[in-house]
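Extended Data, panel c. Modelled sequence:
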Amino acid sequence: MTVPTVDVHAHVLLPEVDALVADLPGLAEARALDARRNGPAALAVSGPMVRERAPRMTDVTARLAAMDAQGVDVQLVSPSPSHYHYWADEETAEKVFRLANEATAAHCAQAPARLHGLGLVPLQHPELAVRALEHALEQGLLGVEISSHAPGRELSDPTYAPFWSRAEETGAVLFLHPFGCTLDERLDRWYLSNVVGQPVENAVALSHLIFSGVLDRYPGLKLIAAHGGGYLPTHIGRSDHAWSARSDAGAGCAHLPSSYLKRLYFDSLVHDPQVLRELVRVAGADRVLLGSDYAFDMGTGDPVAGLRAARLPDSDFHAIRGGNAAALLNLS
């Protein structure tokens, strides 16, 4: 127990950002799309859930009390993905990322020994990405959070090259956390928009980074995939087969797709000890980090217990509990 217990998947709500975009016409259209994708039953549950849990994601005293109850020493705090606002025009997008970065930094500054933050990047405007990343780092944040795609752009889009390059050069942490799923109304019941949509989006985004060669060109990227990387790690054999069997699948990356899992990081939030063991097997125990999705209902209130249930060797357990994150985040 000499290393801290570090939760790399924890969120902050930013009322300042909500107020900034509240009266803009693009917000109504974005919310209408979100409503179609999630369906009325999901929205009826999600609204009260967020309101009830909001104090834990806005008040630092409440956050620290929850961390103490969980046995978590340090959180890596990222804005709720609802703050991405990838619909925004360039002027609004710059206001959003600057306000989000500054507000997240101010939140974490109230407990600097225990809270470290990530900012936002407007992926819908690749020309702003480097500026947004540098602004986040200037605020003392450790990196930025990104979604699985932006409208009309996948993470394999060549226009993101300067962003990947600068992230690698600075050693910034990139946290890949999807918001929304392009399967749209097919997932509008039973909360499938999240239950199925989130792991699908993780798998698609990571596959774009692997098969396009982004990870070959920028091997030093420090990228953490939320939700254990979604469906990709447990089905990576299919990717390897395609890479070997088809010229169109194997043309973009230099090595077997499974080998790239050992260059990425994954949080432990998979809700199944057997899946967590498989993630450790394919990615390596040194590439898995504790994650809770604090404080949303699709997360866990006891991430350490979830890790313990996988019955990993003690060295792997403690590495995932905090050792890996302490090294990645350069925690003293």
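The radius of gyration is 19 Å. This feature is highlighted in the accompanying rendering.
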